[in-house]
Amino acid sequence: xxxxxxxxxxxxxxxxxxxxxxxxxxxxxxxxxxxxxxxxxxxxxxxxxxxxxxxxxxxxxxxxxxxxxxxxxxxxxxxxxxxxxxxxxxxxxxxxxxxxxx
Length: 102
Description:
Helix content is 88%, strand content 0%. By secondary structure, the protein is mainly α.
């Protein structure tokens, strides 16, 4: 989030996040659906799309999770614990965005 604030200022960051949030939420939903369906190729594709902009608004933890999905780290990403951690990271990311929009 700091990158957005430094680059665009508070008003510009809010405008960017407001415009981006519906797309981010859709990508998050697509990622979770692919992970739940164990469609690892689709999950990797979704993670790749998200990683491109995640550095602007997400935590490092979320970015690390995306990297594991992209690398198809099978031993890790196929676990229930990983999916739960991913869901929490997505919730945290969306909450942080909403806080910055308020």
